[in-house]
Amino acid sequence: MPATSDFRKHAFSARRVDASGKNVGQRVYWKLYAIENLLRVVAHSILTLQVGPDWWDVAVPSSIKDGVRRRRANYANRPWHSVPGTHDLYYVFLPDLNKIITDNSHQFRPIIKNIDKWIARIERVRLPRNIVGHMNWPHKKDRECINDVYNNLHRLVQQLAASGKTLSIP
Q1: pLDDT value at position 5?
Q2: Averaged over 28-36, what is the pLDDT?
Q3: Which end of the chain is more exposed for a tag (fewer CB within 10 A), N or C?
Q4: How far apart, in Å, are the Cα atoms of 89 and each of 12, 77, 105, 162?
Q5: Closest CA to 168 of 91, 30, 55, 64
Q6: HSE-up (13 A, CA, CB side) for residue 17
Q7: Which helix (H) or strand (E) covers residue 21, if one does?
Q8: Within its chain, how far is the Cα of 90 from the centroid?
Q9: Closest Cα to residue 98, out of 127, 71, 133?
């Protein structure tokens, strides 16, 4: 069987669309899922440690809180759908999550010395994430970027755990 490629570069075939979707899901999407959720755990854990359990109220800009309130209301108006999670952090998008980290980089720096590099890495993965999140075919460079952030994030989580930092799920 030939290698799967972007269905849009061939004559239409519903099976090619299926194969493209399976390929993106199996090779890329799950890594983005892991990236976003690991970042949520890291951000929550560090901000809880540095600021306290009420870190959301203290450390998050009102513009992000307003967006979360709107999204929560949207889900509340449609209770037959699943909700993203119980903590407000599950209602933020990747750029919002990066803004929370950026705005509180002074809280992260004692624990993650190279937090500025992390902020840049997260920003680098934003557009490739949007490509995949909007069901498009990522370019090889996009996949490499996602792989790089995924691998580095796993190393960071291992380093945090090895240094005795407790990582907690929001």
Answers
A1: 84
A2: 96
A3: N
A4: 40, 19, 17, 25
A5: 55
A6: 5
A7: helix 14-24
A8: 10
A9: 127
Which tokens is 60 given?
Answer: 């998050």
pTM of the model: 0.93
Residues composing the chain: 170
Geometric angle at alpha carbon 83, from 80 and 89, rounded to 5°:
165
Are the CB atoms for 91 and 84 separated by under 8 Å? yes
The answer to whether residue 2 scores a pLDDT higher than 80 is no
Tokens of 64: 């992000």
Helices marked H in 90-162: 94-103, 105-108, 115-133, 140-162
Inter-residue long-range contacts of 33-40, CB under 8 Å, 24+ positions, other chains counted: 34/150, 34/153, 35/125, 35/129, 35/146, 35/149, 35/150, 35/153, 36/94, 36/97, 36/129, 38/153, 38/154, 38/157, 39/94, 39/97, 39/101, 39/122, 39/153, 40/89, 40/90, 40/97, 40/170
